[in-house]
Amino acid sequence: MTEENNAPASLTEIPPRVNEFRRFYRVFLGRGLVAFGGVIIVLFLLTAAFAPWLAPYDPYEQHYDNLLQRPSWQHWLGTDTLGRDTLSRVIIASRTTLMVGVIALGIAAIVGMILGLVAGYFGSWVYAIIMRIMDALMAFPMILFALVIAALLGGGLRNVMIALGVALVPGYARLMCGQVLSVKENDYILAERSIGAGNMRIMLRHIFPNCLPPLIVMITMMMGMTMLAEAGLSYLGIGIEAPAAAWGGMINDGYSRITTNPILSFAPGIAIMLVVFAFNMVGDGLRDALDPRLRGTF
Amino acid sequence: MVNYILRRLVLTVIVILVVTVIVFLAMRLLPGDPILMWVTSDKLQETTVEQIQLLRHEYGLDRPMIVQYFDWLSGVFHGDLGLSMRYKMSVTSEVLRRLPITLHLGLLAFILGFVFGIPAGVICAVRRGSKLDTVITTVTNLGITVPVFWLGIIMLYVFSLWLKWLPTYGYTSPFEDFWLNTRQLIMPVFCLALFPIASTARQTRSSMLEVMQQDYIRTAWSKGLRERFVITKHALKNGLIPIVTLSGLGLGGILGGSVLIESVFAIPGMGRLAIASVQQHDYAVTQGVTLIIAIGIVLANLVVDISYGWLDPRIRLE
Known about the structure:
The complex is a heterodimer of chains A (298) and B (318).
Chain A: H1 3-6, H2 9-12, H3 19-30, H4 32-49, H5 51-54, H6 86-122, H7 124-138, H8 142-153, H9 157-183, H10 187-194, H11 199-235, H12 247-255, H13 263-290
Helix pairs in contact in A: 3-13, 4-6, 4-13, 6-7, 6-9, 6-11, 7-9, 8-9, 9-11, 10-11, 11-12, 11-13, 12-13
Chain B: H1 2-29, H2 34-43, H3 49-58, H4 65-77, H5 91-126, H6 131-143, H7 148-162, H8 178-211, H9 215-222, H10 227-264, H11 270-279, H12 283-311, H13 313-316
Helix pairs in contact in B: 1-4, 1-12, 5-6, 5-8, 5-10, 6-8, 7-8, 7-10, 8-10, 9-10, 10-11, 10-12, 11-12
């Protein structure tokens, strides 16, 4: 029998403070799939960090006496049309996916949050101008938008990150703006203004932190989508340049050998799925733990 | 309601104008001279500076930006999207030839998203925690995870090359050969519909779970209504509102996905036209395709907004 059970009923009803955190962890890690996703993400980050040491072969070295090998003990996933080890290329390509995902989302989140904060805080015509532009940007399908921007700026990974980042801005701006509109009605904002705080101080010190939880959820939820979009672009041959490896590009390279070496397309696809699945699951878990009201909005 | 629709219409017109400005500016302001790109790729040696000037004049690229914009815009309103530099033909006719193909695939996928997604989500919500719920939820989680172009390739390998059940790729008009058209469309439409089905099911599930906890549902139960009646008449009607709102975004996803799927299955639609024009620096075509798709999505969102206001009277009065 535990101590709580002996205490008077009125005392047991008062929840101890730490429960908020416990609840967070319990809800967050309670579902097996979320924990599974977390493990995959850690493995993915480690793979990307130590890729050159983990790869069994040089992912760029071509062996013309060793083309299109089937999976074997020497080459677990076989070799491609230039005799490069597929496993090593899948491993090194994790870096491309991670980098594009993080930087594109970073650009989108920062720019989107600033625009949403300004639009929501100042309202009236500032709101109208910013949000109409966001509405218009939302009318372009992400992949098409990124395709056009990356093509106009010229290929290259940097431009793909910019293109995806810009395509993702409206989502953050809208969410942030909605948050600001509700947070700024609180009495503590009025109190702050009455003691003479400036706009900057109110926006950054008081409104911004109170808007964060749903945005953190959205960033996690969008990570998978961004990585899928990056894979789609590199499948179309945009972004990644010749010897460098990206999962989408590898799927496209393998497409022409689908009848003889399906593993060339198969392996990078599985890698994308695992990582995207992991981010989606962790995003779901974070959403349920941080902000149950958001359920089903993504 | 009339007031609400009018307000939506005005907003839509504004957004479409902003869309045209974005499309126009993106094409003109970003680095890369379309004329030079076009000339360089073919026959730079034989082209003189005068000829380039002449070309620039021919395509109206030597005039002030604002004049170019309004000129282009009035063309757009008259159904003239310009000339394809590569093919020397009207962009409008090329777009009109390909638009029905993309719409055919896209609308099928859009409808399938509702037809399968909503019942799947409702079943999950009603039988929450059951084996069926676990299975459907896992499948929908995979459905929003899989790269569709990769799924297309894998399906092509399994069903066309290995089992030889379905034709590999291409598109035949349904008016020409309906049976062949259907067989050709099975795989691409499945790939396009997978994400809408999965995301609709997920949204329906969580929206229904929330609605089922409301007091009026308890009232409906306590009145002794049958389960089917409680779910369809009371819960679903309210649970569908967020699904309708998000369907406009879903259409954007389908059209974006068609860029990839049309490329995998060699379907001559808008998506492939977009990719080809980007690769060939045929910027009038890129501009036309992007504009038409974006305007289509804005108009779809207008329809969504209006039906949303019709479904939920609270929205109209906001």
